[in-house]
Every structure is written in C-alpha cells, then in structure tokens.
C-alpha cells in the first residue's frame, strides 16, 4: 500500500469485528507514528493503548453512564466554536445528514440519534482503543503536533487496520481516568478506536471540498 492509497483509504470506521489486534502490530504502528513531526521535537503526545479486560471495563462503565443518562463531564477544551460560520456550518450539517442517513435514521428521530451516538463509548465494537493526552501547559502549536501524530497513526493502514478518532470520549474523561489513572497535568484530547473493519456495517463516505475551495496557487 503506497502513501496515496493509505491517505485515500483512511476514513472514520464505525463498525469493527472482535478480531484481536496483536500487541506486536500495535507496537509497530505506534513506533512508526512516533516519527511524526513536532516543533523542536517536543513530542507532546502521551498515549494509552487499552485492550482486553481494561477496555471491556471501560466500555461497561461508559455504557452505564449512558444508560443512566448521567450528565457529561465538563469539557476541558472547546470542540467547536459556539457559532460555526459558513462554509464550516454547512459541512458539519452535511456530515450529520450523511452519517444518520446511512443508518436509516430520520433527522427528527432524536432517540435513534442518541443510540447511534452511544456506540462511540463502545468503541464501535473495536478490540483496541488509544487515548491521547496532552500536557495542559502546552499551547496551540503543540495541539497541532498531536494532530499530526494521530493522523500518522491513522495512515499506517499497511497492517490492514482501520480507526475512528473520537473527541466524544472527552465528555467521559473521568471514566477514562478511572481506568488509566493519568497524571493530573494531562488533558484527554481524544480516544481512537482501532481494529479490523466489519464490512457488514453500512456507511456513506463523506466527500471533500473541491481543491479550489481550500487551496490557492500563487504562481510566477
């Protein structure tokens, strides 16, 4: 698989089989991802990889919170601006429409949407999950570095793995912390489900803006 195929085949998969991911494969992927760029080589990411019993317990506890309608943990960072302007608002709306349409869920069916969202905290059935933290003293450039690291993890498709990055875990960060016991100076940025795709789960591939909407060539 060349780099172009890895980039274009990567997507947020929301249906995994229970086939285990060998630790040696995860170590190979994460060892390679460690070469992601970061300003002055700070490497500001701190990742926890969870499988087996600890992941099952985390899913159980998160599921219990969902079932009891427990309120979300206070966010430690803002996921989206309070008011998304154009064209970002339209892109987010289009994504939501495509996502729920693929599941046969109508816009007005709030309960079905909630059930679909709850699958986040089961890692969509994935047998492995990565939780990525960053030191709360870090600034915006270091958050950008973390994004490049996570993208590198997701592009290591040669192992046949798929993934789904999930900022949704940030609202159950206390439950995650019960399992992982991270130092107080770390903020949970996101989780990431990792595993082998369940091809029986339907999906619609979200599109991308035309190149001339996001790129300007300045030529001599």
From TrEMBL:
According to the record, the signal peptide region is none
| Lineage: superkingdom | Bacteria
State if RNA-binding is listed as a keyword: no
Name all Nitroreductase domain ranges. Answer: 8-195
- Do you know which CDD domains this protein is assigned to? PnbA_NfnB-like
Is Oxidoreductase one of the keywords UniProt gives this record? yes
What keywords would UniProt list here?
Flavoprotein, FMN, Oxidoreductase
Enumerate the SUPFAM superfamilies for this protein: FMN-dependent nitroreductase-like
From the Swiss-Prot or TrEMBL record, give the protein name. Nitroreductase
Name the species this protein comes from.
Answer: Streptomyces hesseae
